Recover the amino acids of this structure.
């Protein structure tokens, strides 16, 4: 997942830099050719990495939503501690 995110960021940066220098050097035909190619490479990298990253995020969210909450498991293991902290000082015990 981290590799996809890094690819997405790098692709967006290459695309942005290519477009920036393409506009900046619009009078030189050789520069336009080079920066057009750079912009296309950055765009392709962004377009390839974005759906892969999104699909992975969606899968992670769905698996997290279908799992049992962590608090329920901890609550079952520490029921004595929880009842101690949530009871009044008169009725709490330290067993």
């Amino acid at each position: 997942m981290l590799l996809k995110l890094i690819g997405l960021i790098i692709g967006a940066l290459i695309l942005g830099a290519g477009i920036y220098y393409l506009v900046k050097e619009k009078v030189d035909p050789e520069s336009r050719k080079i920066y057009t190619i750079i912009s296309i490479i950055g765009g392709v990298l962004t377009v390839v990495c974005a759906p892969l990253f999104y699909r992975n995020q969606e899968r992670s969210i769905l698996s997290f939503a279908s799992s049992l909450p962590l608090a329920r498991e901890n609550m079952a293991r520490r029921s004595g501690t929880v009842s101690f902290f949530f009871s009044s000082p008169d009725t709490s015990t330290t067993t």
